[in-house]
Amino acid sequence: MIRVLVAEDQSAVRAGLVLILRSAPDIEVVGEAADGERAVALARELRPDLVLMDVQMPRLDGVSATRQVVAEGLADVLVLTTFDLDEYVFGALRAGAAGFLLKNTEARDLIEAVRAVGRGEGLIAPAVTRRLIAEFAAKPVREPAVDPAALDSLTRREREVLSCLGEGLSNAEIAGRLDMAEATVKTHVSRLLGKLDLRSRVQAAVLAQELRA
C-alpha cells in the first residue's frame, strides 16, 4: 500500500482528491491537511510514503512545506497546482519535490502519478515539461547551483542518464533510449543523485535543463 497525505486548502478539491485516491486498491489516504503547517505536522506524525501537496496554501505555502518535509526525510512530495508556471513551481522542484502535476489532471493519471512516485520515479506532467523547457530556454544563461567538480565526477553513462531525466523520461523510457536494463538505469540515477547531492530525480531534471541553457 502507498500511504498518502493530502494537503489542499480548498475542502471541495481536497475531498475530490481523497475520493479519487481511495478508489485505487493499492493507495491509502492516511490524513488530510488544509494548510502547510498542518501538512508538515501530520507528515511528522503519520510518516506517509507520499504527500500530495497544493502549492498555494495558508499559514505555510506548499514550497516551504515541501522543503521541510523533504529536508526531514518525512516523505516524497507530489506537488499539485494550476497550469500557470511561476516561481512557485521552480521553488517546489528545487525544494526536492518528487513530482509535479496539474490540478486538471485526469483521475487515472493522478493515481498513476502517485504509483510512479511510490516506485521511486519522479514525475512531471508532459504539458508542464514542455513549459519548463520553454522557461529555461527563455532565461539568461547562468551557472547551475552544483559544484563543477561534482559534475566532472559523472561517468559518460551518468551524463547520458542525466540528459534523459532532463527530457522527463521514466526509467523504462531511459532504458529503451540507452539500451540498458531498467535496474541499471535505477542504479545510475541513484549514483548521480548522490554525486550531485540532489534530493530527487526531478531536481536532476531541472539541473539538466540548466546545463543546456
Automatic annotation (TrEMBL):
Modified positions (4-aspartylphosphate) are D54
Pfam families (UniProt xref)? GerE, Response_reg
Give residue ranges for domain HTH luxR-type: 147-212
Domain of life here?
Bacteria
Task: List the InterPro entries.
Answer: CheY-like_superfamily, NreC/VraR/RcsB-like_REC, Sig_transdc_resp-reg_C-effctor, Sig_transdc_resp-reg_receiver, Tscrpt_reg_LuxR_C, WalR-like
Keyword annotations for this protein, in alphabetical order, are: DNA-binding, Phosphoprotein, Transcription, Transcription regulation
What species was this sequence derived from?
Answer: Streptomyces gottesmaniae
List each copy of the Response regulatory domain by range: 3-118
Q: Does the keyword Iron apply?
A: no
| The protein's name in its UniProt record | Response regulator transcription factor
